[in-house]
Amino acid sequence: MRTKFAIETKELTKKYGDLIAVDKLNLTIDYGEVFGLLGPNGAGKTTIISMLCTIINPSSGNATVNGFDISRQSSNVRHSIGIVFQDPSIDDRLTGRENLQLHACLYDIPTELAKKRIAEVLKLVELEDRADSAMRTYSGGMRRRLELARGLLHHPRILFLDEPTLGLDPQTREHLWTYIENLARTAEITTIITTHYMEEADRLCNRVAIIDYGKIKVIDTPANLKTALKGDVITITTAQPKKLATRLTELKLTSHIDSSRDTIRLAVANAEKLIPRLIKIAAEIGVEVSSVSVHRPTLNDVFLHYTGREIRAEEAESTLKKHMIMRRRTR
Amino acid sequence: MSELRKIYGLWHREVIRYWREKSRIFSSLILPVLWLLVFGSGMRGMELSGTQSYQTYIFPGIIGMTLLFTSVFSGISVIWDREFGFFKEIIVAPVSRTSIVIGKALGSGTSALIQGSILLPLSFLVGIHMSPVSFAILIPTMVLISIGLVCIGLLIASLITSMEGFNFIMSLVIMPLFFTSGALFPLTSAPGWLRDFSYVNPLTYGVDVLRWGTFGGTGSLLPIYAEFLILALFATAMIMACSYTFSIKK
């Protein structure tokens, strides 16, 4: 069965008592996309993924994954998807290869084919040498890579990566990103990534949705989102910020301006072209400019623009708890 | 057929895990040996109606106890899988919930088999002379008992959220099952209220069949086929109950 969309949700909702974790979500993701679900902790990303992976049932609304209904055809959905969970989900008493063999059993991949594919995915994530060591001797990055290999073993049409690089060092992260990029290019796998590393989303995703309080705040390509902010910010350091700010406001050169003791920040659409004019204006009114800097918006700015800047206290706590459990485990 | 392969995979995992923890196999033998040699010797003076010594009397009961502790604990250990993520790998896989339960139960049944095979020779230590027929009866019985018990553990695991509730379970479920099973004293000499408890305790029939097998087919509470039937029905019902609880999604 082939439908137009890899994923389509209709008014998808999940409530826990009074808390609405996912609120009437309408979303379509095309085949072959690398789609990013971004949002602060507790925004509902993992709940969305859990519903799409048939771990939990929606309270109302519906969704299809690879054309299959998540509530009524969950077995077909499960065959269509591969998942790398946010938390480790390997059996660390088994070796890497044993974990993969178990996975092959669970997805009913014929033994001979499984052998071939296990060799393939191990090669892809460069773990051939360590395949027969117990998982507990693996580093965090190696575990993640093995989980990715496992998620790909049954050749899913759609791959879910829930915070795939959380807690990894920059080298390992770079490595994983390269794998994911190659997958999208060569294997025609639709990939859904949740993350709160904006550089990750910017680099990998061709479309992102920013989610907060269970709702989509905005959805577009990273480039469009950055442009839409109209957010080049010019920061001028000068001894007389007030005087310059007043003049610039008179000339209506900027939509937003604020000044502090020795700096002015102005939001403009095209910073490079404006800078020579600003310097000239400053010279005309006799204000000496000591430095000028330009900040182009990143996806981070887009994110903060749509979700605000305050830290979500209750979420910070639960993350802390999780870390403590993890530490207890490794002791 | 494909479900069989999935059950095989899950069973294989349990067996690998069990086999890799040799210290656990060893330590699970300490307690039964203590009961048998220390407790059994201490109670030597206790009068039993037959000609048996107390030590020989409790031997099948101690095997029942070992099965009870290890199987229920093995079921509860799903909590670790859930806490540390491996459970997710299983529940998002296209595997029926019944297969998950059967895979787990058979895995635990296998460890019961290994453990029992190590324990049974101890019978010579307390002066029981078992025939090969006894071994042939006892081993499948142990597997059957273990399957029902591991499901008790699985049900408990679905009710409690962390290992912190474990002491509570120990004193509220495991110990009462043990004490009322006739493992330590003959039920014929127990007061009526206690006997009522014993008759609804599935482990009673398990211990009784073990005792029947150990002593060469003499004296059982109910006809032996009825006791086997009760054990088989209990195991089946528990597998169904667990499959149902596992299929409930939040």
Briefly, what is this?
The complex is a heterodimer of chains A (331) and B (250). Chain A is α/β, with parallel strands linked by helices and 331 residues long. Helices cover 41% and strands 27% of the residues of chain A.
- How many alpha or pi helices of chain B? 11
Compute the average pLDDT of chain A: 86
Proportion of residues in extended strands of chain A: 25-35%
Which term fits the overall shape of chain B? Answer: globular
Helix content of chain A: 40-55%
**Shape verdict of chain A:** elongated
Low-confidence stretches of chain B: none
CATH class division of the largest domain in chain A: Alpha Beta
* CATH structural architecture of the largest domain in chain A: 3-Layer(aba) Sandwich
Overall radius of gyration of chain B: 18 Å
Question: Tally of extended strands of chain A?
Answer: 14
Largest interface: A-B, 30 and 27 residues
Oligomer: heterodimer
Helix-strand pattern of chain B: HHHHHHHHHHH
- The Rg value of chain A, from CA coordinates, equals 24 Å
CATH level 4 superfamily of the largest domain in chain A: P-loop containing nucleotide triphosphate hydrolases
